[in-house]
Amino acid sequence: YSTCEHTLARRAREAHMKRFCKAQAIQRRLEEIEVTFRELEKQGIKLEKLLRDENGSPADQQTQWTNQLLYLVQKKNSLMTEESDLMIAVQELKLEQQQGQLDRKLRSYMNKEETLKTPEDHKAEQEILAQLLKVVNERNHLIQIQEEKRLSEL
């Protein structure tokens, strides 16, 4: 292997580890969100029961329960938005990994001497290039979705 190939292999391993750590952090956060969803659901059920069953409660008590319920709904919506963002990040990580793999495959074909390439090599190179373009377009689509979400939140 040349120094360049060693450097590329090392960078690929580093990128893989970085994606792996990020994926683990995302997975942990998704699990935390799931637990929080369940807790919010339980609290919401309790508040709904209180609101339904306590017709004789003072108006300010019912208002307080209603406000608490609205707060829970707002918090749940916020968590759903975060979960959606995390799912997009997961998809982006997968596409990033695919792109890296396809880049390496394409580079191996492109580094091959033109006179030594078989028709199968040319065909494989074109297929990899097409797959790479597809992955790049999918990543671009995810970026557009994130940008649209960001603009709609403003």
Automatic annotation (TrEMBL):
SMART domains: DUF3585. Residues 13-154 form the BMERB domain. Keywords: Coiled coil, Membrane, Monooxygenase, Oxidoreductase. Residues 23-50 form a coiled coil. Its main location: membrane. Transmembrane segments: none annotated. It is found in: Membrane. Pfam families: bMERB_dom (PF12130). InterPro entries: bMERB_dom (IPR022735), F-actin_Monoox_Mical (IPR050540). One of its GO terms (molecular function) is monooxygenase activity. This is MICA1 monooxygenase. The lineage of its organism: Eukaryota, Metazoa, Chordata, Craniata, Vertebrata.
